[in-house]
Design a protein that fits this description.
This protein is an alpha+beta fold and about 350 residues long. Helix content is about 40%, strand content about 25%. It is built from 9 helices and 12 strands. Helix 1 packs antiparallel against helix 9, helix 2 runs antiparallel to helix 3 and helix 6 runs antiparallel to helix 7. The radius of gyration is 23 Å and the shape is globular. The chain starts with about 25 loop residues before the first helix and ends in a 7-residue tail after the last strand.
């Protein structure tokens, strides 16, 4: 089944008979972008850091950690403004009226989060601002996208099959010597799985640092620097051991992807707790070849997964579903991946 052309695979595609803004998946992403409070975390982390330093009248491990968080949040502010915020003002007029048009495309350059995309053999050159390396590779492979615009100011939106989010774009002069992005043999779902594993470990590392820093700040007041430092190290070691012993499906994403080839199964969406957030607990009912039904749950069901299931009625699974087991799901050839379990959702 995975040998079929990518354009024939069951996946979400933007509407062709109505404005792009009318698609629920697109609208969900737009609302999340508009409501995102990118500046607030900077002030929250800075205030917490100042409070910790004030309480300790000097060094505070938690204070240092909060300062790092403030810097990271500040970087996020500039990234959001350069990639998305500049485009949001034009989005309503751009997406409310125009219908997406299928166009030929070629990725002719890019780095970081931006990509140069040539449209219809050079008729337009667009600079896309939310395309990481794996998405850039997908553009190089597909050579076809849906385009809305550009408007009078040269602002447009690009939509990629299977990825239900508008990609902000602006018309720019074509480079004198375009360098087409080389098509590689990289497994894009595997890249997504590797990224998911890194994210899971990073989240646990941050949790461990918060716990160890809190212990340090308490001990440094009561027992002094030596015992505080020893406590800090011991807490990190204990947390690391506990993390290794309690790895969940997010940590095993690459292994789950290796189960066996992709297969598409009819799926019915039962519930999703994500809206208005982009991630939430997901419940599905999968229909197996023998006609039986199997429950499916995802703790971190993302909007792209819900959109693809809703649009096609299918769930792509890496491997054979088995009750009580876990599996990686997504769309073959796409840079997105998720973990599911074939069991009823547990009460929380």
């Amino acid at each position: 089944m995975t040998d079929m052309p990518m354009t024939d695979m069951p996946m979400w595609r933007p509407p062709v008979d109505r404005p792009l803004d009318s698609d629920p998946a697109i609208q969900l992403v737009l609302n999340a972008w508009r409501k995102r409070k990118v500046v607030r975390p900077v002030f929250v982390f800075t205030g917490l850091a100042a409070l910790m330093f004030l309480i300790h009248l000097g060094f505070s491990a938690l204070g240092v950690l909060f300062l790092v968080g403030a810097v990271a949040a500040l970087v996020g502010v500039f990234q959001f403004r350069s990639r998305v915020a500049w485009w949001l003002a034009a989005a309503p007029s751009l997406l409310d009226e125009a219908v997406a048009v299928r166009v030929r495309s070629e990725a002719i350059g890019g780095a970081g989060s931006w990509t140069l995309l040539s449209i219809d053999g050079g008729r337009l050159c667009l600079r896309l601002t939310t395309t990481e390396a794996s998405v850039r590779q997908l553009l190089a492979r597909q050579r076809e996208v849906s385009l809305v615009g550009p408007n009078a100011d040269g602002i447009a939106a690009v939509v990629i099959d299977g990825l239900p989010a508008p990609v902000p774009a602006r018309v720019v002069p074509a480079p004198a010597t375009p360098t087409p992005v080389a098509v590689t043999s990289e497994d894009l779902p595997r890249l997504a799985a590797t990224k998911a594993v890194r994210t899971a470990w990073l989240a646990q590392a941050v949790t461990a640092l918060v716990g160890a820093s809190l212990l340090f700040d308490v001990l440094v007041i009561v027992e002094g620097w030596l015992l505080a430092t020893i406590g800090f190290v011991l807490m990190l070691v204990a947390t690391a051991i506990a993390a290794l012993a309690r790895r969940n499906d997010q940590h095993r994403m690459v292994k789950l992807l290796d189960n066996s080839p992709w297969q598409a199964y009819p799926a019915q969406l039962l519930s999703w707790a994500g809206n208005p957030a982009l991630v939430g607990r997901l419940r599905l009912a999968l229909t197996l070849p023998d006609g039986s039904r199997m429950p499916v749950t995802a703790r971190l069901g993302a909007s792209w997964l819900v959109a693809n299931i809703t649009a096609t009625g299918y769930l792509w699974v890496a491997g054979t579903p088995r009750y009580g087991a876990s599996a990686a799901v997504g769309v073959p050839g796409q840079p997105n991946i998720a973990a599911v379990r074939f069991e009823e959702a547990q009460a929380r």
